[in-house]
Specification:
This protein is α/β, with parallel strands linked by helices. The protein has a single domain, classed as Alpha-Beta Barrel (TIM Barrel), CATH 3.20.20.370. Helix content is about 30%, strand content about 20%. The strands form 4 sheets. Strands 1, 2, 5, 10, 13 and 14 form a 6-stranded parallel β-sheet that branches. α2 packs parallel to α7 and α4 packs across α5. The longest helix is centred in the middle third of the chain and has 19 residues. The protein is globular.
Length: about 290
Amino acid sequence: MNIVLTLVTFLLMAPVRAAEWPAACLASEPVQVVIRNDDICALSQVDWERKLLAVFRAEQIPLSVGVIPAIAADTRYKPEAKRHPLGEDDAIVRLYAQAAQEGWVDLLQHGYDHQQNASHAGMAPAKSSEFSALPLAEQQARIQRGRQLLQQAFGVTAQVFVPPWNNADGHTDLALENLGFQGLSDTRLWRFSATGKQPIPSRMIYFDQLDETLEQWYRQGQCQGRLPPETVVILYHSWEDYNDEGPKRLQGYLQRLKDSGVKITTISQALGLIPDRQLEEKTVVLQ
C-alpha cells in the first residue's frame, strides 16, 4: 500500500484509545511489543537516521536494530556487486553506538551482505534468502565474518541473529549454535540453549497492521479476551521514512502504540538475555 495512503487511513481510523480500555484486559503476563528496524548499514543516510532515532528517543521507546555488516550494493543475486563494510561510514557507527551505549537501542546482526544466494536468484522478496540452501560451512563462515565486522565497529559481540528476508534453514540454526549465538529473530523469536532451539510465543506484524492487531484485543472499549502472554515484533525499515513526512508518520505510530498500554521492550530483553532497563528521561543530542 502507498505510504501516504497508509498514513491517511491510519489517521482516519481513530480507534479507541488505551485510556478508555478496561484494565481487566491486561493479562498477568501482558503482551510485549518490540520494534525491529532492519537494514541499518554503511549505505544508510545518517541525517535521516538521526531524525528518526530522535523520534524514538523523544517518545521514550526502545528499539531493536538489525545491522547489516557488509551490505551488497545490489541485494539481488549479483556476486560481482561491491560490498560496503559498516566501518565505511563512521557517522552511522557513532550514531548507533551512542544509542546502544545509552541502553535504549539493541544491536542485532542482520545477515552478512543481505544479497540473494544463487538458489534464490530472481525470487520475490518474500521467498528470498541470503542463507537458505547454502552448506553449513559456508553459512557459518559468512555469519562469523559479519559478526567480526560488527565487533570491530561497535566493540560488542552480537548475540541475536536476524536472517535477511526472515528466511533461514536448519544449517543456519546449526551455524548459530556452533558460534554461540543466543537468539534468532525471524517471523518469530527463538532462544538457543543447552537443549537446542526453543520458540518464544511471538509473531511479526508491520506498522500498517497495528490498529488491526490492537482491535483483536480491544473493540469499542470492550475486552476481546485477556491479552496473550506473547511478544509481537513490529518489523520496520527506517529507509521507508527518508522523506519529510517520515518522522511525523513514525511519531503517530509510536504514540498509538504507547496509548495501547502494552509493554514495549527489545528483542534481547524479550529473550531474557539482558534485564529490562527503563529509558532515562533526559535530553540527549544524538551525534
